[in-house]
Specification:
The protein is mainly beta and about 250 residues long. It has one helix and 22 strands. A hairpin with a 2-residue loop joins β16 and β17. The chain is globular. About 35% of the residues are buried.
Length: about 250
Amino acid sequence: MRKRLGVILVVILLCACSQAQVKNYKFKVVKDYPHDMAAYTQGLFFHGGTLYETTGQYGTSSIRTVDLKTGKPIQNKKLSSKYFAEGSVIMGDYLYILTWTNKVAFVYDAKTLEYKKTISYPREGWGLTTDGKQLIASDGSANLYFMDEKFGLNRKLQVTMNGRPLKNLNELEWINGKIWANVYLTDTIVIINPSNGKVEGSLDCTGLLPDELWTSATDVLNGIAVDADGKIYVTGKNWPKLYQIELLK
């Protein structure tokens, strides 16, 4: 009996240690900026001091560069109405865009946004980021896919939180050696160790967009970007604001 109780105690302690590994954070708004309420944000990132954004929905999907101070597009290239744009990122000389269920990805010139080519893509496209050497994508499951520039699969990584697979991984951003991900249909952003897939941090963004700014068109939190100075920005689909935030334990 004592031996059994000892085993149970060890299991409880191991579970407690596993749960304690996830650091829980709240947010502090440092500054807010205008955001295009018509932008159904799918991908968001900075490159060379410029903010890039992909927007979704059939008929309104686009890739754009954005004036941070005004929220207005500087360049705005619309995709064909048959495509639903998703995550995007620049790696090397090219900008890559996933599509949701079209089973293709697009490649553009990073400087000019000139279309270069279309590549077959075997999964649903959701979020996309890079560690500088590989493309990293989500597909709404608990998996992340590490790929080369031709979308060839290098490895698949299952993301777990407290030992359980974490589904609905959406928009992604590489920040300080970790992968940040929106969890679709929630106000949560998770911070993932890219080596083992474990969630090391959880950011609760509940209340980030004040109730008085919500409209019938307002959709979920989606969009994470970090600038060259390490400042973190988040927004949502059809939100009127983009927020620079800091994490609070």
